[in-house]
Amino acid sequence: MGVPSTTASAVSTASAAGAVSAQLPAHLADAIRDDAALRRFLHGLPGVDQVGLEQRAAGLATRSVKKAAKLWAIDTAIRMVDLTTLEGADTPGKVRSLCAKARRPDPERPEAPGVAAVCVYPDLVEVAVAELAGTGVGVASVATAFPSGRSSRQVKLADTRLAVEAGATEVDMVIDRGAFLSGRYGEVFEEIVAVRAACGDAHLKVILETGELATYDNVRRASWLALLAGADFVKTSTGKVSPAATLPVTHLMLGAVRDWHAQTGEARGVKPAGGIRTTKDAVRYLVAVHEVAGPRWLDPHLFRFGASSLLNDLLMQRRTQLEGRYSGPDYVTVD
Amino acid sequence: MTSNVWEYAPAPESRDIANLRPNYRMFVDGEFVDGAGEPLKTVNPATEEVLAEVATADASDVDRAVRAARRAQETVWGRMPGSERAKYLFRVARLIQERGRELAVLETLDNGKPIKESRDVDVPTAAAHFFHHAGWADKLAYAGYGPDPRPVGVAGQVIPWNFPLLMAAWKIAPALACGNTVVLKPAETTPLTALALGEILQQAELPPGVVNILPGAGDVGARLVRHEGIDKVAFTGSTEVGKEIQRAVAGTGKRLTLELGGKAANIVFDDAPLDQAVEGVVNGIFFNQGHVCCAGSRLLVQESIADELLERLRQRVTTLRLGDPLDKNTDVGAINSRAQLERIRELAAAGDAEGAQRWTSPCPVPEKGFFFAPTVFSNVHQAMRIAREEIFGPVLSVLTFRTPDEAVAKANNTPYGLSAGIWTEKGSRILWMAQRMRAGVVWANTFNRFDPTAPFGGYRESGFGREGGRAGLEAYLASGDEGAGI
Amino acid sequence: MGRNGNSGRNDENAKQGKNVRDGERGGHTGHAGHTGHAAPAADGRLPVAKTYKLYVGGAFPRSESGRVYQVTDTKGRFLANAAQASRKDARDAVVAARKAFPKWSGATAYNRGQVLYRVAEMLEGRREQFVAEVAAAEGVSTKRAQADVDAAIDRWVWYAGWTDKVSTVLGAANPVAGPYFCFSVPEPTGVVGVLAPRASSLLGLVSVVAPVIATGNTCVVVASEERPLPAVTLGEVLATSDLPGGVVNLLTGRAAELAPWLAAHGDVNALDLCGAPEGLRADLERAAADTVKRVVRAPAAEPDWTRQPDIGRLRAFLETKTVWHPTGV
């Protein structure tokens, strides 16, 4: 962070690249050789036509998913939820009750699956880890001066280490949108690589904050940038900026991981976050996962929902499916 | 995970919504009446079941309908203030919207197209055509055809089976807005929604005789266009029949517009927005089973990205869901008739014989009904039949080009000229290409868009005359100087 | 063309302050309309008579068939021999018209307007020659011929002014219900076969040719069979008016012989039957159907060409092209 000169940046891009390029196919290894190569690569990606993309997303959103297919979708969506609380008012008590919900979302229906992870701020990771030990539910932590990312590299890395040392199994970092929008791709790349290194064994989700990237072309470039830098997941949003996750943006990112897989053989994940509140929404996202990336991505290892209120709607709809009558909000737990 | 990890459960739209009846009758002079022709049986192409028996017209019925239309034109409709005609057409637009779901299901049953297309495209666009043209009815003096444009008279209109209700709307709405009356012949295999439209016209209290609907086969159409009592012929259908009609009206002084076949090129440059280009190519040829006169049936792809594009295309086509047209998740429905299915098969076989490489989507194909799996031929050359003849089915022919000039030359190398697609991120190239396409509609970075305000129609053997917008009114208006010939 | 010695500008033109760009201006004003092999003038000089040829691809060839036919005035007096074009001449003319189409249709409307205006200028310069020819061909008074020639000149001017307005008047930005910019522009149909009016040898001819080429079409014109000479002379005007060769191709001969070849020709896009022989019109329309040609039918009777035209003839040989593009970032 904060390396103003292109030359210096190129040098550090190159050294950062060394860490991740070992297994990449030649054309992708080339892409991260230096700043100029990275820029050429990102700007050489095919453009995205906004109207066409949005139309495709809207078209797929008309899929009608009923009966067993819907129940399967609900259970799958529950297993994909990163149950999230990211408030200034968060407390250990709030996190503990969220963890209880994550372990056993529907106390009356113990067969209901648990969620993928809970997602909290770094200082509360310890609490969550203690609550979730042995449950199989992961602990994700936002890091790197979430949500704005406006701090020094040292602070961001320290933030990351704080989370990882407290036991986070997943780290959700934010990219430096300022650097990205001003074309300093090398800096963004380098920072992701550095955070990746600080994560150790923890999975790294890279938040692009697509609402601030403004164009789909930027989202595609940022997705590839993150994938090249070693992101396990690309994630749409912090939830603090509007618009947060949208179907078209998620389509685009699913297309990026599909293409990444086609070119490298590696399956990376996608996480839309923010604004997904209903089962209907979640099913539309799953349809996109199914038909854009492919059935393989219908898996919590490769797709997550960053959400809080979504879980209760999924649980209500789950009951509706099983009981054959509509449920109500007082029959699911509020946390 | 395997690919069938998540099968969407069947989600069929209820067939009851169509209010299907065992018998349908002709609509003449405001009434549903028996026809003297041999009744036809209309079939659900997805199941091969007979849907209904439909009365057809013979020569005397054509006479009767033309007389009714003439009387209505001269005594009521042609004299009515445009503002009043407008209100009838607005009513029709609203009634179509109100009965939209019924019309969509009926269309899907009779035609075989996926319910999502009849629901999201055919029916809403049909309503939009009435709504748009309603507004013209009292503003014709502003349309640029002289200060006092007059109706032409009685229009004989013959429409195809690929968009039965929508084509009826395209034909009837402008004719009525301009003060003409209509005798419409829907296609033999898809008469039902036109007759349902007849009910809507009754509900709208349209004066008797303003619109008359005569089901039947080609013989009814031939009688209609040759009838001495009509002033104007409008036809949408094959180029072959269009030529016959043009011959038939030669020397009669009848006005004529034709909207005929096509063999459109969808041209993808190496800088195209690839994912959207793939969508556009898929939409271009598999929308409505490829039963679209302006279908992008030839993909012209720049050689440098041909392999990548084809790979993406095949992957995408693999996700198309073929099957029950009433299922809301069906992307590709049934071929409209056995005859059409056979024609598609024959042309596809010609592609094999001529050495093109056939790839067929691995999607399951229902045992019953007329279905043809989405098919892509690569290594196609200009000289092959599948590059020249309109297949009118879900069959794409892929050719390559190296330079923009070559793309233009290949795209235009056809007697047709209905539509073209251009995919590139370079603005100046889009306009350069659009200028050079010998086609009535050019879609750049999109495909198969239709709107009542946007004139649609062909160059060359794709026909003449336009439908939609100000330009579309010309077909139904006699300008002040008509006949002076200056 | 018969020539007498009265060269230079006449008084009327001098008063109008016209620029004379063309040394051929002048002289016929006082003559009876006889334009054929003129008798020796008063000074005893024998005029040099013109050989009337075809105008194809910017050149003036004889008919490949070697045939000519006698053209007489309305009283049956010999005026000249005209080339009797054959189907092969028609074929060559279509080739020339097609060859000229890309450049002419691709020219700017401003450029086409200037060329058409230049035709008017050239015609003005030869006004008296045309008056004499028209009077001779049509058997009308000099005064009437003058009025016709003047109207023909003015008609070129009128259409010259239309070239850069047609798209504005007939085009549109279509307010489609979606995120698209959609516009429609008129474009020329292509090669037009024109059967020129039979009675009005110049004004009628100009009235059907000018609107065809104003919008960027090219054409093959079969001149009035009985009154072809002003057409050939118009060819000379066109040839000296910056009009690219092949944009207008003028054939003289038998309409009944030539028209079926044009009507059936696969590379002719449209047909103006204005001067088609009555008995042939339906057949020509039928033949045109084989390639779905646009056909402008013959009026019931030859119109009064002195009337102010509307834009019907401009519109008749235009296609509407609708272009869509998404609007997005």
Describe the structure.
The complex is a heterotrimer of chains A (335), B (486) and C (329). Chain A has helices spanning 6-20, 26-31, 35-44, 50-60, 67-79, 92-103, 125-132, 153-165, 177-181, 185-199, 210-213, 216-228, 247-264, 279-293, 310-323; strands spanning 81-84, 117-120, 138-143, 170-174, 203-207, 233-235, 269-271, 305-307. Chain A is an alpha/beta fold. Chain A has a single domain (42-331), classed as TIM Barrel (Alpha-Beta Barrel). Chain A has an 8-stranded parallel sheet with strand order 7-6-5-4-3-2-1-8. The radius of gyration of chain A is 19 Å and the shape is globular. The two termini of chain A are 38 Å apart. Chain B has 486 residues and is of the alpha/beta class. Chain B folds into 2 domains: 15-260 and 461-478, Aldehyde Dehydrogenase, Chain A, domain 1; 265-452, Aldehyde Dehydrogenase, Chain A, domain 2, CATH 3.40.309.10. Helices cover 38% and strands 17% of the residues of chain B. Chain B has helices spanning 59-77, 82-98, 100-111, 115-136, 164-177, 192-203, 218-226, 239-249, 274-286, 306-318, 338-353, 385-388, 404-412, 427-436, 469-473; strands spanning 23-24, 26-28, 31-33, 40-44, 49-54, 150-151, 154-158, 181-185, 211-213, 232-236, 255-259, 265-268, 298-302, 357-360, 375-378, 395-401, 419-423, 441-444, 463-464, 477-478. In chain B, the strands form 5 sheets. In chain B, strands 14-15-16-13-12-17-18 form a 7-stranded mixed sheet, sandwiched between helices. A 6-stranded mixed sheet of chain B has the order 9-8-7-10-11-19, with helices on both faces. A 3-stranded mixed sheet of chain B has the order 1-5-4, with helices on one face. The model of chain B has no long low-confidence stretch (mean pLDDT 96). Chain C has 329 residues and is of the alpha/beta class. Chain C has a single domain (50-326), classed as 3-Layer(aba) Sandwich (Aldehyde Dehydrogenase, Chain A, domain 1), CATH 3.40.605. Chain C is built from 11 helices and 10 strands. Chain C has helices at 11-16, 87-106, 109-125, 127-138, 142-162, 166-170, 203-214, 229-239, 255-264, 281-289, 312-316, and strands at 68-72, 78-83, 172-173, 180-188, 191-195, 218-222, 248-251, 270-272, 294-296, 318-326. In chain C, strand 6, helix 8 and strand 7 form a beta-alpha-beta unit. Chain C is globular, with a radius of gyration of 20 Å. Strand 18 (441-444) of chain B pairs parallel with strand 10 of chain C, so a sheet runs across the interface.
